Fold this protein.
Amino acid sequence: MITPERVVGTSEGDQVNESMEAVLDFYAREDEKLSGLQRTLERISCYISKPSFLIYLLLFVLAWIGGNLLLPYYLFNAFDPAPFHYLQGLIGLGALLATTIVLSKQDRLSRLEEQRAHLDLKVNLLTEQKTTRLIVLLEELRSDLPNVRHRSDLEATEFKHVMNPEQVLATLDERVEAGSLKQTKENTVVVDADGNKL
């Protein structure tokens, strides 16, 4: 015989599994959207972000400089004499390519993070709606029970109302705008014609 606790546990387990599958499906869909070039750039980005890449780069630079300094002692011409113009060009090109690769990956990750933030917002709003519904049901139950004396609970009354997301965003925008205006006023210095602060 199945106990009620077991049914609840199975139900929760199913919900956890469904949630995990949804998250994994989300990441799989995002991974499928990557082009071959983007995958290659991300592999390169993972490689150049490792400490071993820095060690190899330093060894390459030291070998380049050492080779150019030692070749004249063995009666050969240095292929890149002492200001090392070719080496500077290679390092500049490498820095440009590395920056572009890292920025490409960062752009993709920021878009993914933005999608996650939207998902978090949706989940939070849904949770808030469910919580509000629970409060309403509890208040109805409390008022219907004959053994419980009636008392007014101002917080519960306030929490019965579902929060309006548009109003929250409008209030947030107003505060951000007011804060930026306040900061602008604080940073603004007014001077007279002689250059003295007013």
Notes: DSSP finds six helices and no strands in the chain.
